[in-house]
Amino acid sequence: MQKVPLTISVATVSILSLFPTIAQAEASVRPNVIIILADDLGWADLGCYGSKYHKTPNLDRLAAQGMRFTDAYAACPVCSPTRASIMTGKYPARLNLTDWLPGRPDRPDQKLLRPIINQQLPASETTIAAELRKAGYATGHVGKWHLGGKGSLPQDRGFDVNIGGDAAGSPRSYFAPYKNKQGVFIPKLENAPDGEYLTDRLTTESIQLIESKRDKPFFLYLAHYTVHIPLKAKAELVKKYKRGRPGEQGNPIYAAMIESLDEGVGRILKKLDELKLTERTLIVFTSDNGGLCVTEGPNTPATINAPLREGKGYLYEGGIREPLIVKWPNVIRPGSTSDVPVCSIDLFPTILDACGVKGASGTGETPVKTLDRRDAGPTKGASGTGETPVKTLDRRDAGLTSVVDGVSLVPLLKGGELKRDALYWHYPHYSNQGGKPGAAVRAGDYKLIEFYENGRQELYDVRKDRGELRNLIADKPMTAKKLSAKLTAWRKEVGAKMMKPNPDFVPNPQKKDGTVTLPARTAEVHGIQLRYEPLPHKNTLGFWTRADDWVSWNFTLTKPGLFDVSVLQGCGKGQGGSEVAVSLDGHELTFTVEDTGHFQNFKARTIGRIELSKPGRHALTVKAKKKAAGAVMDLRTVTLKPVNGRN
Questions:
Q1: What positions carry a catalytic annotation?
Q2: Do 53 and 350 contact (CB within 8 A), yes or no?
Q3: Residue 448, Cα to own-chain centre: how many angstroms?
Q4: What is the average pLDDT across 525-541?
Q5: pLDDT at 396 over 90
Q6: What is the DSSP letter of 509?
Q7: CATH topology of domain 22-99+123-361
Q8: pLDDT tier, 403 (very low <50, low <70, confident <90, very high otherwise)
């Protein structure tokens, strides 16, 4: 047998002895990761997204140093489901966590009952924190959790440190002492000087974690409570802002809250510079759902999401489209912008990909495979057609036992392209903000919304019409049909839980004094363009530009009798003259719409009397018999008032 020369063996040993050093060097260049998540921050609330009212110089600078996404989405129009999607890379429907926790209880005024949902992030799920910790990262959670209580807190789900996270969704106050809505101290924030501001404190805690973990790769998840209600801000900042006009951004308290948020981002960026960590730190900034644009507590509405439609609690763009800024030095071209549709489900695979983590889990799951340029063909995000299906990750892919719905955005961040067949939403709940239960799908340029109460569908080209002003459901029936089929198949694939009829449904009950009030928000819309507009300065049935569109109400009568019927109508200058019929129990009352000078300038008008002889459920319809000009009218309320002595 030929002997191996000793010199070769020594050389081999020398080379092998280098391997730990090489491995350590590779680990040392893995990026630190910071996710900064705002709560209820709207797409249009930052200067770099077009706001002229809010002051956000540090976030604007972050966007100038990284990539700003114009078509980024939250996985749900309310908070907890989106947070679950960030943690797991999965759609909320797959997690059966589709509403804020614990969720709004069912009520008699709901036509449908909500499904039973998980009240915490399931223990079987592997979080991004757990994956990174197994890969040697220090992991820290600061701020809002809202994904379960004892046994399902951040420290139970992969975080080494939890400061401020519990089951609650909002603080009692933003000024110390810090307690949640139940009056319990927020964890690790029990000791705080009176008057300290929560946003500032969470930033300070985050900076201290960065300092303590700077010698190894770290993952910091800073989930701010701000700008969620109750709206409270530092008085000296509030004074800087003047109140705006209705329908525009102009809430001084909200603006001051955003300024404190922005100041905190600036402090973190400065600390990274001081510690010479900037060049190897990946930063993600985003929000969990759209801005609150309706009245929900003191000092609201918080914001206006224009040019997007509606806001938090709605499946329209204002409820789910989010600011998303990603900074990754030496990888992302500074000042770049992407209009490719992306979603909060993508953060999990993106960050694991960026950190070189293949995703071994502690629950028997095999490595998570993320999509890159070799897995997917290109899409510019604006084609609308011709996209091939995205490769869903399941147990057939490399023996996986878990599904990841998101895709890695690393190729996109590096200036490449990304393929995606569609993005989906499933919200089988009535939101506190007035949103109705439904689902949505965006594929290419087109977005289909389906409402669960009656199956009504709306189709929009959100590339050309991001305000969702023109419903294309009648113009593009084949597109709607294809998207509807996609949505149905997706719900089946993820096991989406559906709603059931409410046997105790009591629509618009008669008041004790015998009055029946039918507000715009409880109407059922029929047709294409007519819609309910929930913004407080509107609160109306508007966009009545088609004579064939109409509206109906169900109501519940306990005391029959004779009623005066009145309408609260508005009409723009020169738009009056339309003939309208109000029908009920075989009776028809007609009236001519009056010009009130503005569609939101409402006038109460009694249009006639109707005799209702039977108790129980009744249906009232309002239809245009003739449209005189561009629009029929705006309609805020129909009221049936009992005639004295006849009820």
A1: 79, 146
A2: no
A3: 16
A4: 97
A5: no
A6: B
A7: Alkaline Phosphatase, subunit A (3.40.720)
A8: confident
**Where does the chain hold its CATH 3.40.720.10 domain(s)?**
22-99+123-361
Question: What is the DSSP-derived secondary structure letter of residue 443?
Answer: E
Q: What is the pLDDT of residue 10?
A: 34
CA distance 630 to 468: 19
Flag whether pLDDT at 381 surpasses 90.
no
> In this structure, how many other beta carbons lie within 10 angstroms of the beta carbon of residue 382?
12
Helix and strand element counts for the chain (H, E) = 12, 26
Is the CB of residue 458 less than 8 Å from the CB of residue 473? Answer: yes
CA distances (Å), origin 232, targets 87, 195, 203, 632: 28, 12, 17, 41
Whole-Å CA distances, 194 to 186, 191, 198, 239, 465? 15, 9, 11, 21, 48
Residue type, 370: T
| Res. 171: pLDDT tops 80 | yes
**Tokens standing for 326?**
């990603």
Q: Quickly name the fold that domain 516-642 has.
A: Jelly Rolls (2.60.120)
Residues of the chain with CATH 3.30.1120.10: 423-501
Asked: is 423-501 a CATH 3.40.50.300 domain? The reply is no
408 and 353 Cβ atoms separated by less than 8 Å: yes
pLDDT tens across 106-119, in order?
A: 999 999 999 999 99
* pLDDT for the residue 359: 53
Q: What is the dihedral of CA 629, 634, 637, 639, to 10 degrees?
A: -10
This prediction has a pTM of 0.90
Q: Would you place residue 514 in the very low, low, confident or very high pLDDT band (cuts 50, 70, 90)?
A: very high
Give the end-to-end CA distance of the chain in Å, rounded to a whole number: 114
Residues of the chain with CATH 2.60.120.260: 516-642
Long-range contacts of 433-438 (CB under 8 A, 24+ apart): 433/292, 433/293, 433/294, 433/296, 433/311, 433/312, 433/313, 433/314, 433/534, 434/294, 434/313, 434/314, 434/521, 434/534, 435/77, 435/310, 435/313, 435/314, 435/315, 435/319, 437/112, 437/114, 437/499, 438/315
